[in-house]
Specification:
The chain is an alpha/beta fold and about 250 residues long. It has helices at about 5-15, 45-55, 65-75, 95-110, 135-150, 170-180, 200-210, 225-230, 240-249, and strands spanning about 20-25, 60, 80, 115-120, 125, 155-160, 160-165, 185-190, 215-220, 235. The chain is built from nine helices and ten strands.
Length: about 250
């Protein structure tokens, strides 16, 4: 349901502390980097997020990264961080993830430039550095799909990354629904740029049916999936476009 950004800004501002701002990190607050540890928030992000904290009841990052990794990059203690799609990060890795570890590394070794990020609760195989990312993605998808099926895991696709995660992974949408309901929020925004953000967009649709003011914002770039853009209420171009929208809130 496409809506005017001007109209949404006015409506969300009207609920003030009863509103929430939820954001992805990579490709949303930060530009996409060649490796996760090289990503940095947009220069203007800190000031804008601090301003939002003073206005709204919650400002949070909901990320596929481990929460501590986001905190170390963001360095804004008052911004809440929910990592690993909402998985409990202090729990030991599941036996299914342990069983797939060797297969994930074996798949990565087959593709030049691919490598495994061990998140504890999940395994992400990155291939942004591959000479032919399209071919790399196809090879890795076949191998990792088989590994996921054998271990009882799910395979989550992303921007030049494939992630093996437990089948009961909560998803970003579950985090947003939980926080909105527990805080009795009357309005919220979620912004993201990848397929995993569709789960959050679905949560916003359910919350909107319950009467919340809600908008799903797609952060568009050359790599943003068409499915996400089609599902968005508001589309902005790249993280700098999102920063301009957030500054108006």
């Amino acid at each position: 349901m496409a809506i005017s950004s001007d109209q949404f800004v006015e409506r969300l501002r009207s609920v003030g502390r009863r509103g929430g701002i939820f954001l992805d990190f990579d490709g949303t607050i930060s530009d996409i980097a060649t490796r996760p540890e090289l990503a940095t928030p947009r220069p203007e992000a800190a000031g804008i997020l601090e301003g939002l904290i003073r206005t709204y009841g919650i400002v949070a990052v909901v990320s596929a990264r481990p929460a501590e990794a986001v905190r170390s990059l963001l360095r804004l203690p008052r911004v809440q961080v929910f990592g690993l799609y909402g998985l409990a990060e202090d729990a030991p890795p599941s036996s299914a993830v342990e069983a797939a570890r060797d297969a994930a590394h074996a798949a990565a070794e087959m593709v030049e430039g691919a490598w495994v990020e061990d998140k504890g609760q999940s395994l992400a195989v990155h291939y942004r550095g591959a000479p032919d990312p399209i071919l790399a993605g196809a090879v890795l998808s076949e191998r990792l799909s088989a590994a996921a099926a054998a271990a009882g895991l799910t395979l989550i696709p992303g921007k030049k990354v494939l992630e093996l995660a437990p089948r009961n992974v909560p998803g970003k949408g579950s985090v947003i629904e939980r926080e909105c309901r527990s805080r009795a929020l009357e309005g919220c925004l979620y912004a993201g740029d990848d397929l995993s953000d569709l789960d959050a967009f679905g949560a916003l649709e359910r919350l909107r049916e319950e009467g919340l003011i809600a908008a799903a914002v797609a952060v568009r770039s050359d790599e943003t999936p068409s499915e996400l853009i089609e599902a968005a209420d508001i589309i902005v171009d790249r993280p700098e476009g999102l920063m301009r929208l957030l500054a108006r809130l």
